Amino acid sequence: MKNKMTLISKLTSWFNNKGKVLIALSGGVDSALVAYAAFQELRNHAIAVTANYQSISSSELNYTKKICSEIGITQIILTYDELQNDNFVRNDKNRCYYCKNELGKNLQRLVKLHNINTIVDGTNIDDYGDYRPGIKAIRNNNIRSPLAELGFTKSMIRNTAKLIGLSVHDKPSDSCLSSRIPWTRKITKEKLIRIELSETIIKHETNIKQIRVRDIDGTAKIEVDKDELKLLTKHKLDSIRNKLYLIGFSTIMVDPEGYKPGKLNFISN
Length: 269
Description:
Order of helices and strands: HEHEHEHHEHEHHHEEHE
Number of strands: 8
Largest sheet: 5 strands, parallel
Shape: globular
Oligomer: single chain
Number of helices: 10
CATH topology of the largest domain: Rossmann fold
CATH class of the largest domain: Alpha Beta
Strand content: 5-15%
Number of domains: 2
Strand order of the largest sheet: 3-2-1-4-5
């Protein structure tokens, strides 16, 4: 208990003398913990900013509002359309760079408007173990990552969030809807809507919390944690298939290997 309290104290203290701070807040536990610590130290000089763009699901956007209400922090919803960016839509292996770079530029526009001194995000040291070109864009836009700077791992973050009572502490990790589309396949609004709707359908049918529907040239590849594959019974799969056909998928399959983060990084032409 003492060690965990020391962790939150270290994170809170990181914000000493940082001036007025913007926190790039997604719907996950990492940025939520950063927002909590910033608010504890800075109160009204801490502002959460959430990007409302095509690749975020409506449920994830709503969850960010819940997090901010829990913490008590002011939230700005930053709306823009990343599908106007041809580099992003092309969907090459640097897609995340273009996405985060655009976010960074939008955050920089808020700096003068709100007299901001520091911008932060929820990147932690475990993120460096995956292919994440977006981290380079974050650095290029002078966005700092207190969790990474202080050596926080994902497990440390979840344990600390649980200790201080954040409801997001056990929320499954999510990623943008565009990450369900393999590199080199063009990203469109229609695909993003179809992916979001299909994941919502499966959640309602099964009560499984962590689901990915990969849109691979019109094939819906369903991924859930391996120990939850048994919840996709024949009866439920028949119902899911019928509904996914109606929203435009031509083939529906379940990945027998289960969910694995970054799996589409290995799918190419």
